[in-house]
Amino acid sequence: MKFKILFAMAILFTACTDYVAEYKDNYEEAYGDEEAFRQNLDNLNGNDVIPEESSSSEDPDDPEENSGEINTSSSVKSSNSAKSSSSAKSSSSAKSSSSAKSSSSAKSSSSAKSSSSNEGVGTCEPVKSIISVNESTAWKMVKSSTLAAAAVLGGDFEWTFGEDASPKTSSEHGNMSSNPVTYTTAGKKTATLKFTYNNVTTTITCSELTVVDDSQSSSSEESSSSSVYGSDVSCYPNDMWCKDQWNRVNTGVDAGMDNGGYWWATTDNSNGGQSVIEWPVPRGTDFSSDAFDPIIDYCNGFCGTYNLEKGSLDEPWVLVGFSIAGYSETSSDNVPADVSGWGGICINYTSDIPVKVELHFDSDLEQALKYDLPFVKLPKKFTETDADTCIAWSKFAQGGWGVTDRGGIAISTEEAVKYVKDIGFMFQAKTGTTGNFNIFRLSAMNGGGAVLSTWGYLNGEMTYGLMQDDRDGQLYRTIEIGEQTWMAQNLNYVPGGDTASYCYGDEPKNCNVYGRLYTWDVAQNVCLDGWHLPSEEDAITLLRTVSGETSYDGGMLALAGTKLKSSMGWNSDYSGTNDYGFSALPTYGEGGSFAHFYTIREVHSSDGDVYGGLITIYRDDQAALGHGDKTHAFSVRCLKDK
């Protein structure tokens, strides 16, 4: 019995030793040597300076940090699935009161000089440097890795604001950001932050905030301009988004519900992390179209404070971004768009740590990529300027670990930009990192436009497969109809020869949406391995399945066309219900009123002419087998081999 007790105690001691060692390793990775840190805190007297901690932010000058090889395994697709009312509109006229009433001499908090006497611990600044009486603001810590470490060890924090402020104090264990605060009188204001560890208290005095009466602020053009973040950033006619002028990004494309371009935010909580984004003022209703209007109006941009805590993750993160086309009538998530016409994206921002700009896709593609999303890493930027950072799409790339470590697919940037659902800005660093970000302006790099992706014409309520053509890396969605598996979009493969295939309307950009058009001879050999051009029997099976007919005599099948056509992309009088997810688009006739797909069938006329067989979908509700001149170019839908 004694032996069993001693054996159990030995196991317990070993487990505890392992836990302590693991805790010490994790702590030192984030903050440095724990014993030295405790000694520094124990030796504090009043405002004695703690030696500067090494920053938990990544170094933009370090080539390792800017190589673009960041593990994004913790990345999760952004969620904007809750539908907002299609009638909700963001108001560009809604402005924060300080925007119209502040002095032009005011600078943003990023340039405010801190009066703290303890800069080794961190500095404290107001989010705005000038506000009006009864306007809300907040105080924020910057360069606060030491305080973050104290929070992990159990330090207590207490904010104190001016005597006429409401609320007067805010005590939050382990939290370095204050609640919004309002001052009721004009004048110079400040705040203090105290933190206590082992019964030793250190006080940090924040830099000054100017509060003015409405009567003291000039409305003249010479003396009135934005005093908040973004005061040094201009707006231009070609901007997709600029500060608080618009509350949604003007992406130039919409999925039909007038909700494209709205901002969203998420954190690592659903993946086991404990990171949070603190907003300077309360948000609007979650998942509504105007949820971030108060943030945008207040920040003169899109700003917040990230507090990164890894929980069970290797590296914590928070993520903000905007949709491109929004959602459609048949989708519960944002619809993919083709942004290749932008050429890239230009961003004006500030951030205390590097920013990873990511391309986001629908859940099926992100899973196929194993969440190894194409991205570019931008350096940290502390001071606002009018200079944009422009990144060509060709600079975006996957990290590579999704393919090598997890068996995901590789995707070229040229292909990826045809299916972008959202663009995200990820802030990812070591646990305990806290800092601020603000996004001031966005624009397309070459001024080009975006269009609805070919995937945007699919039925969002159907379940599609995903297939990659190994000849050129292009991606296609597939759909099961009865016992057949069809491509749910037209083939876009480029065979050899200048006259072997064409783009609809002779517009190269149309190939990304409608696929390519092929002559009958070329179409016979254009499908990829494992797929084939449909035979007459294959075509009849399709038409019988969607029409519900048990037999087919070669005539017109009523409603078959309506059920095969996409609900978008046709003249409104001819649009379909897309009941089977086939998503046919018009590529023939005046204004695009017919869809023709080649088969392997040959049709011999009485005078000896030979025609190529077609599946024809008409502008009304009908579909049938037809035929056409072999030299004419029509679409191809490949069918999976059995």
Could you name the key traits of this structure?
alpha+beta; 4 domains; six-stranded antiparallel β-sheet; five-stranded antiparallel β-sheet; disordered N terminus
Q: How many domains?
A: 4
Tell me the β content. 25-35%
Helix content: 10-25%
CATH architecture of the largest domain: Sandwich
Quaternary class: single chain
Structural class: alpha+beta
Name the CATH class of the largest domain: Mainly Beta
Integer average pLDDT: 79
Span between N and C termini?
67 Å
CATH fold-level name of the largest domain: Jelly Rolls
Radius of gyration computed on alpha carbons? 30 Å
Shape type: elongated
Q: Main β-sheet, in a few words?
A: 6 strands, antiparallel
Query: Helical region count?
Result: 12
Model regions low in confidence, pLDDT < 50 over at least 5 residues: 1-31, 43-119, 170-174, 216-227
CATH homologous superfamily of the largest domain, by name?
Answer: Galactose-binding lectin
Work out the number of β strands: 36
